[in-house]
Amino acid sequence: MAVPTFVDEVTLHISAGRGGNGVASVHREKFKPLGGPDGGNGGPGGSVILRVDPDVTTLIDYHHSPKRRADNGGHGAGAHKNGGHGGDLVLAIPDGTVVSTSDGEVLADMVGSGSELVIAQGGRGGLGNAALASAKRKAPGFALLGEPGDELSVVLELKVVADIGLVGFPSAGKSSLIAAISRARPKIADYPFTTLVPNLGVVRAGEVTYTVADVPGLIEGAADGRGLGHDFLRHIERCAAIVHVIDTATIEPGRNPLDDLDVIERELSRYGGLEDRPRLVALNKIDVPDGSDIADMVVEDLEARDLDVFAVSAASGKGLRELTFAMAEIVWSARRERPVVEAERIVIRPRSVDGADDFTVTHVTEQGVDGWRILGDKPERWVRQTDFSNDEAVGYLADRLNRLGVEARLVGLGAVEGDTVLIGATDNAVVFDFKPGLDAGAENLARRGEDHRFEEERPAARRRREIDEAMVERAENETRADVARRLDRPKRGPTGYEIGSAQDPDRVESDHD
Ligand SMILES: Nc1nc2c(ncn2[C@@H]2O[C@H](COP(=O)(O)OP(=O)(O)OP(=O)(O)O)[C@@H](O)[C@H]2O)c(=O)[nH]1
Ligand SMILES: [Mg+2]
To answer: What is the pLDDT of residue 121?
Structure first.
């Protein structure tokens, strides 16, 4: 018999949405050629959320299409229009799904209808030039790019959450029993391994409502991989009690209720971890005359083993009321000890708040690179936000890195001009040549989208070099300001500080994050 594989474990590849790009735009109006910057921000990308849905009972959908992606955020536009929020992607998963990384680290055990797990966060939208404008940088000719969303693979593993688990040989009548005591309609047939997917039924007995699950039939040697294997026992790990369903009417040679029970118990103990669960025994098929006789014969033996025994018939309904009330009693007392799990919302990898300012600089010599690697939440994020085809944007990045203290740290560690600087981890690092002294603010008299510091013979640099040279031979009490005046090419901020220097009252401190 071909046994189709039952999907209770899938690997899911998920990508959250990318943040939309900010836009650089300038307000235009008739007779007012140079309005202010009015480029809107990009919208954040959508996140991927796993949510427990009681109507979903298998992971089969994800087996068929394991790649899922949330929407990207919209790009900003002129006239201060911000991009739209990318729609979140909500994936419905069964109650009792365990979520782990591909390395096997458990991220969350999803129990309780409505519980949510934000498994991949959407990327932030990039700021438009309106938001980037400041007193010094009145009309930025650049905007920030949206950031990519999280991308990862996770393993979903279903462990059915049922109060009662039914175990037994194939065709003992486990599924028939669920059908008889609940509204579930599992597949029932007289060949072994009819059940390939655990079935779940909701039962109400008196005041107590509880769930009952069956698992595919077990046979001797299940732990060694015979039959469908005892992997399915993971589905009864969470049950408060185990009910042995025993076929009293089987005509298979060598089978009888007591031996059947022993075989199943042996498999349970080889699986392990289920010893403490209370047991009930349901002797099924007593509507068959031989079955009823055999049940009578073994009841005493079973009770002598301290087991609660119920002679039932899934076919006729005999004995089912007593059985369902006995199950309800166990469930009720188990619940008193362990309260029902409330729905909760878990967020994996929340954006770090503490330590966001931290970055590390290490000297690296690898793959022919001799340089410095910078790792840290902010530097790496800022690099992702930068449009490297726009010099002004690159200048802005340099300013942000300097304000964070990256340059100072590099110099302190002995980095010199021309050294290679890598920002980010090995596989997606951005490489720079280190140029100390690029600390004078991006807002220096450049055309939009340009930064003078990227021109070799830029006037400001030439001027500084001239002053530096003149300083060497300056008169005794001549200050740098005197030297500059002497060179007769004054280019100063209105109140005498150097543009972009620490005393500059207009110096931009905010990073807009
Ligand atoms: N006469 C009689 N037949 C029953 C009774 N319960 C189940 N059966 C029959 O036994 C056969 C197997 O029943 P299932 O409910 O599919 O058994 P199962 O334990 O779920 O079997 P697997 O899913 O294969 O492990 C079917 O033909 C049922 O009609 C009962 O109380 N009386
Ligand atoms: Mg079945």
So the answer is: 92
What are 212's strand-pairing partners? Answer: 164, 201
Ramachandran area for residue 236 (φ above 0: left; ψ -120 to 50: alpha; else beta): alpha
The rounded distance, in Å, linking the Cα atoms of 198 and 215 is 5
Task: Looking at the CA of residue 187, tell me the nearest atom of ligand 1.
Answer: 16
- Residues forming a β-bridge with 156: 10, 99
Q: Which of 1, 167, 175, 176 to mutate to test ligand 1, by most ligand atoms within 8 A of the CB atom?
A: 176
Structure tokens at 373: 């690697």
Nearest to 246 by CA among 216, 273, 213, 280: 280
CB atoms within 10 A of CB 325: 13
At position 512, the amino acid (one-letter code) is H
Q: Which two tokens stand for residue 158?
A: 């279903």
Half-sphere exposure of 14 (CA within 13 A, CB side): 27
Token pair listed for 380: 């790496």
Specify whether the CB–CB gap between 187 and 179 falls below 8 A.
no
Closest CA to 218 of 157, 253, 171: 171
CB 395 within 8 A of CB 454: yes
pLDDT confidence tier of residue 458, bands split at 50, 70 and 90: low
Using alpha carbons, select from 180, 179, 231, 254 the residue that is nearest to residue 3.
231
CB 456 within 8 A of CB 398: no
pLDDT, tens digit (0-9, with 9 covering 90-100), for 395-423: 888 888 888 888 888 888 888 888 888 88
C-alpha 187 to ligand 2 mean position (Å)? 7
Residue 188 CA: which ligand 1 atom is closest? 16
Rounded Cα distance, 230 and 167, in Å: 11
Identify any residues that bridge with 165 across adjacent strands, giving them in sequence order. 213, 242
Identify the CA nearest to 212 among candidates 237, 177, 188.
Answer: 177
Dihedral over Cα of 498, 406, 387, 133: its sign: negative
The tokens for 73 are: 């955020």
CA dihedral 88, 94, 95, 101 (to 10 degrees): -70
Q: Hey, what are 27's tokens?
A: 């307000």
Query: What length is written for the chain?
Result: 513
The tokens describing 442, both together, are 């991006």
CB 109 within 8 A of CB 98: yes
Ligand at shortest distance from the CA of 193: 1
- pLDDT tens-digit map of 6-28: 457 889 999 999 999 998 888 77
Can you tell me the mean pLDDT for 499-504?
40
Q: Is the pTM of this model over 0.90?
A: no
Q: At what angle do helices 289-304 and 257-271 cross, to 10 degrees?
A: 60
If you take atom 6 of ligand 1, which residue's CA is the nearest one? Answer: 173
Q: Which residue has the tokens 């650049």?
A: 142
Residue 166 CA: nearest ligand 1 atom is 19
